[in-house]
């Protein structure tokens, strides 16, 4: 399972954020094919968040995403949720951290508690392991 597949399968967000993410996706999907290029994905993220270039680089690194990545709505929703985590973990002076994400930190810490131990005898792809370790 790749990092992108993991995010699509296991990343969840509340309904209000999902609607916000869907609106940003739809605004960038000008040809209405249901897919965004990497450039369109970044533009949609920039319409949602004030991101530093380092944040976009971190997202590309975590997703192992090249310029050829095509993003559908479920993947965009997962990437948007991941972006909130990146903003939380790597605040920048010229980027704004969404206030709505700070209350969920305790639950997320529990989700990733003892992650190295949980993954000890499990075969996990390098890109997924890197994503999980970043999230932990």
Automatic annotation (TrEMBL):
Domain EF-hand: 16-51
GO molecular function per UniProt: calcium ion binding
SUPFAM superfamilies recorded: EF-hand
Top-rank lineage group of the source organism: Eukaryota
InterPro entries given in the database record: EF-hand-dom_pair, EF_hand_dom
Protein name: EF-hand domain-containing protein
Organism of origin: Acipenser ruthenus
């Amino acid at each position: 399972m790749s990092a992108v597949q993991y995010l699509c399968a296991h990343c969840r967000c509340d309904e209000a954020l999902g609607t916000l993410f869907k609106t940003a996706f739809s605004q960038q999907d000008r040809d209405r094919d249901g897919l965004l290029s990497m450039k369109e994905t970044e533009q949609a993220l920039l319409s949602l968040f004030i991101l530093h270039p380092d944040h976009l680089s971190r997202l590309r690194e975590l997703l192992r995403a090249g310029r050829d990545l095509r993003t559908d709505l479920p993947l965009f929703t997962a990437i948007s949720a991941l972006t909130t985590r990146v903003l939380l973990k790597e605040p920048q002076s010229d980027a704004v951290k969404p206030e709505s994400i700070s209350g969920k930190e305790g639950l997320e810490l529990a989700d990733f508690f003892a992650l190295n131990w949980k993954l000890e005898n499990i075969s996990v792809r390098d890109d997924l392991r890197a994503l999980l370790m970043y999230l932990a």
